[in-house]
Specification:
The structure is a homodimer of 455-residue chains.
Chain A lengths: L18 E14 L2 E8 L2 E8 L12 E10 L14 E12 L16 H6 L1 H4 L3 H23 L3 E2 L17 E3 L7 E3 L5 H10 L3 E9 L11 E10 L3 H20 L9 E3 H8 L15 E5 L4 E4 L4 E4 L14 H4 L8 E6 L2 E8 L4 H10 L4 H15 L5 E7 H8 L30 H7 L1 E3 L4
Helix pairs in contact in A: 3-5, 3-10, 8-9
């Protein structure tokens, strides 16, 4: 069968007297004696249906999925709804077919009643029917499309990097994947494409980007997810200002196209030490009363922070961040004073991105690993291939932006869960599919692993 | 420092007498007594540099990375190269800085010498410098951009689905990820977003797409990869023809924009039985002498194929494929004769995509699981949430296209490895990063797993 000639957001007075077919969800039924009014819903909008009970007698309820044939007519005076594009018309139904009868609902859909977080996540496919749940996902799609177009127009090449890969040193735990073919060995899911994007610069791709899935096995804090999405960027033969200008242009384009807001660039640059002194924060919220969005760059970070527990320096960003050239001489005698060529992008008091000019000299990279007390043997084992590759590296740098966070802020949502179609809960569980779950002994055997007995 | 005013593919006679800065790789050095000619290379092209040995004496070799300042001038008559856009000019170098000295190369870069596959993969970042290696990756990017624009313009919403998820029944082994937070339990990496895209239809997204990473733990055949990329599509309230028209429009757009080839649509439809009879193949190669690309749809597949070993039916596509309505009555007495609402897209004798109208009735889905001898308990455990969700499902269907394969065919490459930036070898190893690799006892302990002792 043909299900529809039009969507539920499309019909207006232009279509008067036309015969149409519509399919969608019953958003509400209002019974007026011999006549029933139905709001039929799909992604595109609502259309009012008028049903004569004498000719069409089916029992109809909220969330039933139906397909109808009918004729577009004007709404009687006084019943026009100016709030929706289809508010001046209604469809007089001649024929109706129920495509799916909705027998039971765990909660009311598209009404404004409070539903528990767990129930919403278990029935996420019903929760997403709610306009306020669906819209942020569509907004996210639009945000991504604007970003991709900007990057493409600026000569960046979108390149996919591996997800089954090797541990990268980003400071969190890796998710591991046991290899069946190479028993006893494991892939790691990437915490970021950091190393691969540096390798792409060594290849000469010059300008790389990717909207990349990243993974961190953290004890989940308030608003983190085990998998998240970042806009990953790397460029060759550039300085800090080149990255910053690119990102300012991107944000300007994005906020204008999506929110019709003109951002002022350049964004303020705040020196890390000043930020800490003046705002007691390295992600200051610079909003003033009239401004909804306040960006700034925080720059001139120290390269290291002292780790009291481990009696060693830790990288403030990551171990591939370049020291400022004028501070290279301090690397030996006063590492704590060495400044980094790093920059964070802050929006409304939230860090939404960070990047740096990278080390492109093998010697300096080795020295940094020494200072971080990563032993030569360990460094060679974990990053040997990168150290080797750096012998062939051009000057390069980049940035990564947290797209879940950016989408949440732009759509005025508190949590990144609201802009993720199928988020996990705070215990890293997917309540909808019940992942993670038990697997069969046969599978474990094939992978050459065993569960440890609890003690 | 500022590294460049122009790229190496940009300068022409329009720039004569301009002072410029360029940065890039030395592609070749030709020594002519007092003068050295260098071809400087970047992603954008080659520019000829002229160096007076009296003023610039540095030792210069292939693949050194340099930055130069100089003046654009005409090449002397007889030395013009019409094959490249920069072939009429050269840059007279005034200043030169070596940014990275290339001391040793495991193989010659950008020359046409044969290099072993293993060595190429280990030094993939150098292999990618070769124009013939880099170009397919850039072509892939362009192909993806055209596809995304087409999908966006046609009202499809790009939605990310989880990578840490639950086992899906696609017929291959899942990669498993042990959960640290939920010890003894495992995520599975998706073999496809199949279930999630059906859930999105149940939510009412109407038109979904994603360029999705998928994972299959197979014993690798000739040209498979553990992770691969597919264009994943799903639509509601549609029939087979709607999907087929959409994809024909996409292919037409893609081949015209990328290859300047006008495809004829609609593509021929070949009935599965006819294809097997006439071509002895369900992916016939319909190329005739003058045609470089021949598409066809193979349709009217049986729903099941008999599995002799297991004494049961297996799904010909996957267990969510809808039977033809007129065959529903045969489901009990003659399942082998039931036809499926499935369709494969074939290009030059290769299956590049497959899809179907899905089952959207819980009852039919339960019946199919019975016929596949998936026990009720097992079905509930593995797909209970989907069976539950189907109670709320509109009619829907979709398709998935193998983008690695499509990119390989369009770029005239034999192997999908040539269109993947960092492919794995036939043993599922990444020779560059040495993944998969050993992990520490501490990590295994945290994950609650042990390696099995080899017997």
């Amino acid at each position: 069968m043909d299900y529809r000639t039009n969507t539920c957001g499309e019909l207006t007075e232009k279509h008067l007297n036309k015969k149409v077919k519509l399919s969608g969800w019953i958003n509400s039924v209002r019974d007026h004696g011999k006549i029933r009014f139905i709001d039929l819903r799909d992604r595109y909008g609502l259309t009012q249906l008028v049903i004569n009970k004498e000719s069409i007698q089916e029992n109809l309820n909220d969330e039933d999925i139906i397909s109808i044939e009918g004729e577009v007519s004007s709404r009687p005076k006084g019943t026009v709804n100016d709030k929706i594009p289809t508010g001046k018309i209604e469809v007089k139904v001649k024929k109706l077919e129920i495509l799916q009868k909705c027998s039971f609902l765990p909660f009311e859909v598209n009404k404004d009643k409070e539903v528990s977080e767990d129930l919403k996540l278990k029935y996420r496919y019903l929760d997403l029917r709610k306009t306020s749940s669906m819209k942020p996902i569509i907004d996210r799609h639009e945000i991504f499309a604007i970003i991709r177009n900007y990057m493409n127009e600026n000569g960046f090449i979108d390149i996919e990097t591996p997800i089954l890969t090797k541990s990268t040193p980003e400071g969190a735990r890796d998710y591991l994947v046991p290899s069946r073919v190479n028993k006893g060995k494991f892939y790691a899911l990437p915490q970021s494409p950091q190393i691969f994007k540096q390798l792409l610069m060594i290849s000469g791709f010059d300008k790389y980007y990717q909207i990349a899935r990243c993974f961190r096995d953290e004890d989940l804090r308030a608003d983190r997810q085990p998998e998240f999405t970042q806009l990953d960027i790397e460029m060759s033969f550039i300085n800090e200002e080149d990255i910053q200008e690119l990102i300012e242009g991107l944000m300007k384009d994005l906020f204008e196209k999506k929110l019709n807001i003109k951002l002022k660039t350049p964004f303020p640059r705040i020196i890390y030490n000043e930020a800490m002194k003046k705002y007691k924060s390295d992600k200051p919220d610079l909003r003033t009363e009239k401004e909804k969005f306040a960006f700034c760059w925080v720059v001139d970070f120290p390269l290291f922070e002292w780790n009291q527990d481990e009696n060693r320096y830790d990288p403030m960003h990551h171990p591939f961040t370049s020291p400022k050239p004028e501070d290279l001489k301090n690397l030996d005698k006063n590492p704590g004073n060495v400044m980094a060529r790093a920059y964070d992008l802050v929006l409304n008091g939230t860090e939404i991105g960070g990047g740096s000019i990278r080390i492109h000299e093998q010697k300096t990279q080795n020295r940094i690993f020494e200072l971080l007390k990563i032993e030569k043997k360990e460094a060679d084992k974990r990053f040997g291939f990168l150290l080797e590759a750096l012998k062939y590296a051009p000057p390069h740098g980049g940035i990564a932006l947290g797209l879940d966070r950016i989408a949440a802020i732009m759509t005025n949502n508190e949590s990144i869960r609201d802009v993720i179609a199928f988020p996990k809960n705070k215990a890293a569980k997917d309540l909808l599919t019940d992942a993670p779950s038990d697997v069969e002994e046969k599978q474990l055997k094939e992978l050459g692993i065993d569960l440890r007995k609890a003690k």
